[in-house]
Design brief:
This protein is an alpha+beta fold and 498 residues long. It folds into three domains: 288 residues, no CATH class; 118 residues, no CATH class; 66 residues, Arc Repressor Mutant, subunit A, CATH 1.10.10. The protein is 41% helix and 20% strand. The protein contains 16 helices and 17 strands. The strands form four sheets. Strands 1, 2, 6, 7, 10, 11, 12, 13, 14 and 15 form a ten-stranded mixed β-sheet that branches. Strand 14 and strand 15 form a beta hairpin. Helix 7 crosses helix 10 and helix 15 packs across helix 16. The longest helix has 21 residues. It is elongated, with a radius of gyration of 31 Å. The protein starts with a strand and ends with a helix.
Length: 498
């Protein structure tokens, strides 16, 4: 009888985030995606003799902000190290990185696990380093090298092996991207290669009380969340199958591997055996001073951090009764989220009306121009004025939407929506006597609908809505539909009594 197997996937992630600085990490060359190949280089990033690196303070500050947002401790002393390896896109034949003293360490990020339970992913380290260039293999018979990317500042984030399924890895990576964009430390665009993922995967196999662990496979340079999930799922199955075929395929006997992801074949492919730290011959960079930080400075950076996307989303749901989906859409852009909070100013009724306007007409208008709502109409005062006008019945919902779209088409400044409504004759009539007269007119002109409301069971529910629409038509949209519905319901009840 063959003993049954149980398996557990073990994943640790290495994530490279390109920082949104104007210049490279150790020189003044501009960062520009899509520039002419090798046009954004200088003696420093080309590693020419006699050139000396100078640290980019903005890159270090951004790294500390991101590390703090991941609940990391910040080192009081950190240094730069040379990581030596030979590759065509690394002109110095070494990369300036941080080895034993990273700037951030012992952090964590929480994700939603199974059944809505929070799951903590620990951050082992976050260190700052320079990127390599880019090898291009598009020309038959040769490879080309573009060194524009050489020296770009990267924050490398290394997790503990706390992830045990592909979906958790997917959720962690998407959450980290949102956080990077939210903090403004990176655009984190997958298409531009500004965020790359390298999962380290192996499997714990238990059979008859005996535990086996497969070698670690690091899947290199994944540039999509889907690729992360699919590569982990594939590797988990492959490693179990390889162990079943050869029980010596275990950690310590078989080599750890670097593998690549073939999206067309939906499989990983062997590249080379995985390097260990001693292979890189790390030693302190003699041309760069160590960096020291003070507790007061770190505290000042921490105090300037915005509310995290996860915390803000939870607050919008609990405080204002928003759906999870609506809260996610609002929080997706930090500017939009801050505009929302400023406009509603803690008012639950305004929050629901603001959500309807912001995620409806406004978001579509902004998306059509590849912009965000807050960049097109950034004035919280104007937003609050419009939302209150709709909520208080000064204008109806359709008129409010019309005013909003017109404002978004013509200006990005502060808008006086009350004056706009008056100029366009959109202010609702609040005179109950006038609205009663319109109701009387509609009842006289639409006897069939009135009879349906009184005596046709199949049409009794729809008829009041039809009559309300007719009153709005007669009034030119000026009647308050809420009051109109009340007047119609009262008149129908009166007629039924008679």
């Amino acid at each position: 009888m063959v003993a049954s197997l149980t398996t557990k996937t073990i994943v640790g992630l290495e994530i490279h985030v390109q920082l949104a600085t104007r210049t490279k990490l150790f020189c003044g060359c501009a960062l520009e995606f899509g520039a002419t190949p090798n046009s954004r280089t200088c003696p420093v990033c080309l590693g020419l003799p006699g050139s000396l690196p100078v640290m980019n303070r903005a890159a270090f500050d951004a790294s500390v902000r991101f590390a703090l947002a991941m609940n990391c401790k910040i080192a009081t002393y950190t240094k730069w190290d040379r990581k030596s390896y030979y590759y065509p896109d690394l002109p110095k034949n070494y990369q300036i990185s941080q080895y034993d003293l990273p700037l951030g360490y012992e952090g964590y990020c929480d994700i939603d696990g199974d059944e809505g339970q929070s799951k903590r992913i620990r951050i082992r380290r976050a260190h700052l380093e320079e990127d390599a260039g880019k090898n291009l293999h598009d020309v038959p018979g040769c490879s080309l090298v573009d060194l524009n990317r050489t020296g770009t500042p990267l924050l490398e984030i290394v997790t503990e092996p706390d992830i045990d399924c592909a979906q958790d890895a997917f959720d962690f990576c998407t959450g980290l991207q949102k956080l990077a964009v939210y903090l403004g430390v990176s655009e984190a665009s997958m298409q531009k290669g500004q965020m790359r993922f390298e999962p380290n995967i192996n499997v714990e196999i238990t059979r008859g009380g005996e535990v086996f662990r497969t070698p670690i496979a690091e899947v290199k340079n994944l540039n999509s969340f889907r690729a992360v999930r699919d590569a982990i799922e594939y590797e988990s199955k492959r490693q179990v199958q390889d162990w079943l075929a050869d029980e010596d395929y275990v950690f310590g006997k078989a080599s750890n591997e670097n593998r690549g992801w073939n999206a067309d074949k939906q499989m990983t492919e062997y590249q080379r055996s995985k390097e260990a730290a001693h292979d890189y011959r790390y030693f302190p960079d003699p041309d760069l001073m160590p960096v020291t930080t003070t507790a007061d400075w770190v505290d000042s950076v921490r105090k300037e951090l915005p509310e995290s996307p996860t915390v803000r989303c939870d607050r919008l749901v609990s405080a204002f009764g928003l759906s999870q989906g609506d809260a996610d859409l609002i929080v997706a852009d930090r500017g939009d989220a801050e505009l929302f909070d400023a406009a509603v100013d803690g008012d639950k009724k305004l929050a629901k009306r603001m959500t309807s306007l912001m995620l409806g007409a406004a978001k579509k208008s902004a998306n059509d121009r590849e912009l965000t709502v807050s960049t097109v109409l950034p004035s919280a005062t104007s937003w609050q004025q419009l939302v209150r006008m709709v909520e208080d019945g000064v204008v109806n919902a359709s008129a409010g939407e019309r005013l909003l779209l017109e404002a978004m088409e013509n200006t990005a400044g502060e808008i006086d929506f009350e004056q706009m409504a008056k100029d366009r004759n959109l202010v609702q009539v609040q005179d109950v006597g006038q609205m009663s007269a319109w109701v009387e007119q509609v009842f006289t002109e639409n006897d069939g609908a009135v009879q349906d409301a009184l005596s046709n069971p199949k049409k009794a529910k729809a008829a009041p809505g039809f009559l309300t629409g007719k009153v709005m038509q007669v009034s030119g949209g000026k009647a308050d539909p809420k009051v109109v519905r009340q007047l119609i319901a009262a008149k129908i009840k009166e007629m039924q009594t008679e």
